Amino acid sequence: MAKNKSLLLMLSLLAGFQLEAQVATNSLPLQQFLQLLAQLQKSPDDVALRGKIITLSLTIHPPPDVPDAATMAEGAAEYAINHAKDKSDYSDAAKEYEKALLLAPWIAADYYKCGSAHEKAEELKEAIRNFKCYLLASPDSEDAQEVKKRIGGLQYADEKKERKSDK
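Predicted structure:
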């Protein structure tokens, strides 16, 4: 566990250096973005902070570069998805997407794929959270209505699951 945390810290530092190199001008939104991104590394479960980063990223043109470490985590996630045989494999894939999203929390497609992996792993709350982030990161997506319906279905399934566990 400590090895994974130190590796993730190294990768996030590398990602930060890549993004700081992108700050060629004294761009206030990009500076704010980098500060929020650094805060997210310390509080990865802070959904409100993640939402601020996503919203701010939509105002930065051109959009921030995707750090290589995030791309590598996406590759690991895709490999895990393509070779998944059971729920735990999908859960592992979702964890890889979570690593990518910690380094590049503005990538809408990764939220969608992460949500799908959590859904296949029957991790409903996590799937819902990622689909909501997808909609925030991609406000003009053509599939917004389908994703909202999917969220509604997952919320229904989660509530039903909780009612059963209360009995």
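Summary: The radius of gyration is 17 Å.
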